[in-house]
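To illustrate the input format used throughout this study, we show a single complete record. The first block contains the structure-token representation of the backbone; no residue identities are included at this stage. The design step must infer an amino acid for every position from geometry alone.
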């Protein structure tokens, strides 16, 4: 079997995870693959030579990114230099569109095949990017069925493989073990708080979440709260906020699916976590707050009515979402209480979530993606 040298670029923790699962599926198809690039611990664990570690790159928002331009420029130059010195047979880009689409252009100019796994959200904003993709990307491997339709209509080579979350979203602990570990009561109403995976998101979201919990507890006295924490982040970020709260929430580190599993409701920062919660079939309230300038710019760019990925995939608002100035303790509490005290509403939301789950395809997405990539490289 022919030896293949691949360069792979993932810029965030979610991309690192999906890239690692993809690599795990590529190896059995061709054991002679050499892979290097940008990523994190999970990719490194799969044998990838990490040229640049993504720790510290998790910035969000247009103006926040501007502050780190010098860093991004240095990384970009270092990686593009490797196209000449290492001469990969192909590039695999994973999500991270702001960086990766620019990289695709450079790779294409050097006649290196470009494969893009997990599409930029062209359906939400930046529709013109589909023309860039057609120009610079040789093969799109997408995780939503509606993305396949968009790319086919634009004349882009595309394969729909389904969503990789269907393989990984499952708790490793039994509910009993999680309840015991968190020192929770069996008969309480449990609310999981997922403020985000970045420092800025936690600082924007967690204070409002905790104040909302105070209101919820007055209305539902037997309610308990669990913060889903990111272990790799400085824990002082959480501690500084929780110290100021009257609520003393329990916490779980790097156990998001266990937190979801025991929850009656999840209050969550908008993002891919909303799909994970949908797979677990748990009602949720979606929130998102960013800097004022970023929000102002995004408001003019985003062309769809909802920002929550769960609502976008559903094609309608099936769970409440609160954005920017609507992210208040009062609003979060109201939406949460409205769900928790209405059994009919809970049933309806769960029905909608099951339909979304069905739209995500079947298990085995990473394996199908690996086969689509190898078929493209060896037609």
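Output of the design step:
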């Amino acid at each position: 079997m022919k030896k293949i040298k691949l360069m792979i670029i993932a810029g965030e923790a979610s991309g690192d995870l999906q890239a690692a699962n993809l690599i795990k599926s590529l190896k059995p198809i061709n054991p002679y693959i050499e892979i290097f690039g940008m990523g994190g611990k999970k990719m490194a664990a799969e044998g990838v030579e990490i040229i640049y570690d993504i720790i510290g790159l998790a910035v969000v928002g247009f103006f926040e990114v501007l502050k780190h331009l010098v860093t991004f420029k240095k990384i970009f130059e270092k990686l593009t230099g490797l196209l000449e010195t290492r001469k990969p047979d192909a590039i695999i880009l994973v999500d991270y569109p702001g960086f990766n689409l620019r990289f695709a252009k450079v790779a294409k100019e050097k006649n290196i095949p470009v494969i893009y796994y997990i599409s930029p959200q062209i359906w939400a904003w930046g529709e013109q990017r589909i023309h860039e993709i057609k120009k610079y990307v040789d093969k799109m491997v997408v995780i939503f069925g509606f993305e396949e339709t968009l790319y086919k209509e634009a004349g882009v080579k595309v394969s729909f493989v389904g969503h990789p979350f269907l393989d990984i979203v499952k708790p490793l602990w039994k509910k009993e073990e999680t309840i015991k570990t968190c020192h929770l009561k069996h008969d309480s109403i449990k609310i999981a708080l997922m403020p985000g995976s970045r420092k800025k998101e936690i600082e924007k979201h967690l204070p409002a979440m905790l104040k909302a919990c105070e209101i919820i507890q007055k209305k539902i006295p037997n309610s308990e709260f669990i913060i889903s924490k990111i272990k790799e982040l400085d824990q002082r970020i959480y501690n500084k906020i929780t110290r100021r709260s009257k609520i003393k929430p329990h916490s779980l580190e790097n156990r998001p699916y266990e937190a979801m599993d025991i929850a009656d409701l999840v209050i969550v920062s908008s993002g891919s976590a909303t799909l994970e919660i949908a797979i677990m079939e748990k009602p949720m309230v979606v929130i998102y707050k960013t800097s004022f300038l970023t929000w102002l710019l995004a408001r003019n760019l985003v062309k769809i009515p909802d920002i929550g990925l769960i609502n976008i995939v559903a094609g309608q608002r099936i769970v409440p979402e609160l954005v920017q100035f609507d992210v208040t303790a009062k609003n979060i509490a109201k939406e949460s209480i409205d769900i928790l005290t209405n059994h009919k509403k809970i049933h309806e939301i769960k029905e909608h979530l099951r339909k979304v789950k069905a739209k995500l395809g079947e298990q085995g997405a990473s394996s199908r993606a690996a086969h689509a990539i190898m078929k493209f490289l060896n037609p």
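Structural context for interpreting the output: The CA atoms of residues 83 and 107 lie 7 Å apart. The longest strand covers residues 4-10.
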